[in-house]
Amino acid sequence: MNRDRLIQQLAGGLIVSCQAGRGHALRDSATIARMARAAADGGARAIRCGGVGGLDDVAAVREAVALPVIGLTKQDRDGVFITPTLDDAVAVARRGAEIVALDGTSRPRPDGLDLAAVIKAVHDEGALVMADVATLPDGELAAAAGADLVASTLSGYTEDTAGRTGPGPDLELVAGLRNALRDQPIVAEGRYHSPESVAEALRLGATAVVVGTAITDPTWITRSFARAAGS
Ligand SMILES: CC(=O)N[C@H](C=O)[C@@H](O)[C@H](O)[C@H](O)COP(=O)(O)O
């Protein structure tokens, strides 16, 4: 699929992140693939997956749904942890992801390469790049390096931005990215816990919105209801 057609397919829509961390009751690639199918049935335009489940989750979801797959790997390490190296990014593309999500911050990467080199390698595999950033300057640099989509994923999860918005999403970053990067596809991601917050991000100019936990983590969902029940 070409770049414009793929981005058009996401535009104005919901992307569902299907991930389960180590030790989670749903940590199993076949289970993740079933969640992806359920999300597709509910109207997701694309599935974001991989993370701790890595390449096996990406391949299982690729098999299970006809939607575009945004793949990533995650490493337990400080600093850059989402698809941290060029080799990781190429591997994700080779397991069938049309879009590779990777760290797009300006922090040093573990393989010492710069973002533009990693983006070029993914493009050479025929996939697009979603650059997960934490700040507006990160987003500007990622766009200049050739990222196809810039996502607000890492706001609140870097040393500089920890605790920036509290429990809610960073809508200010989404608005700032849209304002600074007029023609760039912008993805709102991170702590979108209600349909209203999704609508607000789109109103502020996000091209699409990723929701993970609030849809695909029944442990988190149960906890919020259990709290309301006083247990
Ligand atoms: C910071 C980080 O590691 N984010 C990860 C990125 O893939 C996932 O753990 C999140 O679930 C995803 O970004 C969706 O966000 P939320 O689950 O808040 O809707």
From TrEMBL:
This is Putative N-acetylmannosamine-6-phosphate 2-epimerase. Its EC number is 5.1.3.9. InterPro entries: Aldolase_TIM (IPR013785), NanE (IPR007260), RibuloseP-bd_barrel (IPR011060). Keywords: Carbohydrate metabolism, Isomerase. HAMAP family: ManNAc6P_epimer. Converts N-acetylmannosamine-6-phosphate (ManNAc-6-P) to N-acetylglucosamine-6-phosphate (GlcNAc-6-P). One of its GO terms (cellular component) is cytosol. The keyword Lyase does not apply. The gene is nanE. It catalyses: an N-acyl-D-glucosamine 6-phosphate = an N-acyl-D-mannosamine 6-phosphate. Pathway: Amino-sugar metabolism; N-acetylneuraminate degradation; D-fructose 6-phosphate from N-acetylneuraminate: step 3/5. NCBIfam families: PRK01130.1 (NF002231). Gene3D superfamilies: Aldolase class I. The keyword Manganese does not apply. It comes from Saccharopolyspora terrae. One of its GO terms (biological process) is N-acetylneuraminate catabolic process. GO terms for molecular function: N-acylglucosamine-6-phosphate 2-epimerase activity. Transmembrane segments: none annotated. Belongs to the NanE family.
